[in-house]
Structures are given as C-alpha cells and as structure tokens.
Amino acid sequence: MGNIIGAAGRVLGDSEVRAFVLDKLAGEDLDGRRVCVIVPDATRSCPLPLLLGAVHEALDGRAAAVTVLVALGTHAPMTELQLEKHVGGPYPCFEVRNHEWWVTETLVSLGGIAAGRVAELSEGRMRQAVDVTLNRAVVEHDVCLVIGPVFPHEVVGFSGGNKYFFPGVAGQEIIDFSHWLGALISSAEIIGTRGITPVRALIDEAAAMIPARRLALCLVVQSGTGALHAVSFGTPEEAWAACADVSAETHVRYLDAPVRRVLSIVPEKYDDMWTGAKGFYKVEPIVADGGQVIVYAPHITRISEMHPEIEEIGYHCRDYFVKQWDRFSGHHWGVLAHSTHLRGAGTWDPVDGERPRVTVTLATAIPERVVRAANLDHLDPATIDLAALAADPETFVVPEAGEVLFRLRTQHR
C-alpha cells in the first residue's frame, strides 16, 4: 500500500480509509510512546469519528498515552458536548482537550527564528525575530500525529500539514506574525497558490524545531459532506504536498469572466464572522472591479467572541494599515490580517482615503450599527430573495461557501 490513496474525482469507502490508517500506523514505532493527535475544530469538513476510530484501534494497547488536541488557532473553544459530537467515540484511554491558546501556562517556547532568517523566508517582507511558542503537550509527547484536511487557504496557500502546529496549537505571537505575513502578500494573491509560499516556509521552519517526531494523515475532503477523496500519510511536509496537489484539482473552480455580484451562502459551521469570512475569501478573485459580495449568514450574530478588537479597528484594505503602521502596529497583527482578508483588495492614501476594489455586504443577524461601524455594508437577510438572486444573470450564487475557491481562468497557476 502506497503513502496515498484516492484521487480527485474519487470517493473513498470507510473500510478503505480504515485499512489505510491501520496499515500505516502498524508500520510506525509507536509501542510505549506518548502520542499527541492534533485534529481540526468543527469549522473544517472532516470525518473525524471515522479517522479517530481507526487511530484508536491502531494505538490501543500500544501507545503509553494518547492526547487528542483540538487545533483551535485563536478560534473559540469547543464545549464538552461539541467535542463529544465532533470526535465521536468514546475512545478509552484517549484524553480530548482544546488548545487553550489564551492560557499562558499551557504554552512553551522552542526558541526563536532570527530576524535575518525571517527576512529570507518572507522574501524581504518582514525583518524581525519571532518567538516559536506552542502548546506544551506537543513537546511532552514522543510523537505528534496531525490529522486534518487540505483546502485552499487565504494565509498560507493551501492549509494542512504543519499548519496544524502553527497556528493550530501555537501561541498568539507566532500566529499573529504568520498571519500578518500572509496579509502583506494579500489573501487574493496567496489563496490557492501551490508549493511553498513564504508563510508555508515560515511554518515549516518553526515546525522543524519541535522535538517530537512528526507524522501526518492529510485529507482531501468533499466539501460539505465529509466524504474523502484522498488520504496521504508521512511527514507533515510529504503528506501535505501529496494532498495539496489533489486539493488543487478538487477545490478550485474556474470561471471564464468576472461577475458583478456574488451571493455567498455561509453554512452554520461558521458561527461568527471571524470564521464565516471564508465565504468572502474564496470568491473575491472572481468579482469584477466595483462589484459586490453579499455574505449571507442569517445565523451569525457577532463578528468575533474571541477578538472584540476587530469591532474597534473595523475592516480595511492592507494599505490602510501599512501606510499608517505607527498607528496600528500595537494591535494584534492577526486581527489586522483578518481585517484585510475580509475587506479585500484596495488602496489608501492620506488625501483620497480608502478605495476598496469591491463592496462587502453582510446579510447576517449582526446589528446594522455594528456592521457599519466596522466599515462594511449591511443588508437585512429577511429582505433577500434567494430565488430571485439565483435567477439573476449578474449574480453568481455559491452554496456552502467557505471551502471551495473560485478563480478566473486567467488566474490559473
């Protein structure tokens, strides 16, 4: 059995996936080892009960201890009931817990990446040292096994692999640092870029400092269903690269010409705009200059529980921050990055002010005063006629938005 099963256009059966996981873990030196299994939260489509069930079968009676750590990044923690539903089980002898990124005592520093090396990795965009901090469970175990999907991603190009360490279970400094590097490149430029982007290079450099042995089960998931197109196993770098190639064929759709309006229908797994903004990231490249994206998510009631700072700063294009850096450098850079990602491309100068390329309209349950104060347009979702917009030749409707990337054929790479 090779190190990858499946392909674009295929759907794997559960028994095939289970057999692959059992075979691969049987060949690894895991007897008597402490294993940290790092998994996504519920904002990612992933058949986690299937995979963790197979991992439990493979490790039961072999591993000395197993901790399942949910890679929140800086997302909100999952409740006990949410975790139970998310991971399946029960899994005797497995401890399941959130990555508590906000609790300093749960973190440990592995050292730093020097300013000169950062300049090399970032291709000159940043030049300062960064402390490499992550959840101490990673270094307290002998082996770390990443399990997670690969999708086009607005910060790193394609998600997955070592991204489950940084930002998945990292401290806020390197999370902010890596996200701001992505923002300097811009979401529209980096999203869906294949190969080692500057952000991926930074993440890989940090992951190489982890003392535990690193393994990964990377996945290509059928968006919205949890079915698997492909599974690969190996080092995080190898497994990720294999699945990124399949994801590029599976999760990117191409249009021949830009559209004037996109109606992006955000699924309920994104419960705030911090996560639901993916409904914008994945469609921005196909919108014509001066066009509009309507983010339709009537279930979303807040911008971000964990990052209220975004309501104070609002949403702005990259140049708004870069050209006023003295004013904004003291804020969390991850918040600034999120701001630029949802506002999209644009320009700013002190005379003409801010000129966004497209209009971003939230049709959510967030109060209108909050939306407009955050520098976005507002629509009452109750006033939107989904059928009429679907029939409008100038509107492109994206159901289950947030995972599949839309690009113009002229942007193919």
What can you tell me about this protein's structure?
- With 413 residues, this protein is of the alpha/beta class.
- The chain folds into two domains: 4-250, Rossmann fold (3-Layer(aba) Sandwich), CATH 3.40.50.11440; 254-411, LarA, C-terminal domain (2-enoyl-CoA Hydratase, Chain A, domain 1, Alpha-Beta Complex), CATH 3.90.226.
- 32% of the residues lie in helices and 26% in strands.
- It is built from 17 helices and 20 strands.
- Strands 1-11-10-7-2-3-4 form a seven-stranded mixed beta sheet, sandwiched between helices. A five-stranded parallel beta sheet has the order 18-17-14-13-19. Strands 5-6 form a two-stranded antiparallel sheet.
- Helix 6 (172-185) packs antiparallel against helix 8 (198-207).
- The longest helix has 15 residues, at 236-250.
- The protein starts with a strand and ends in a 5-residue tail after the last strand.
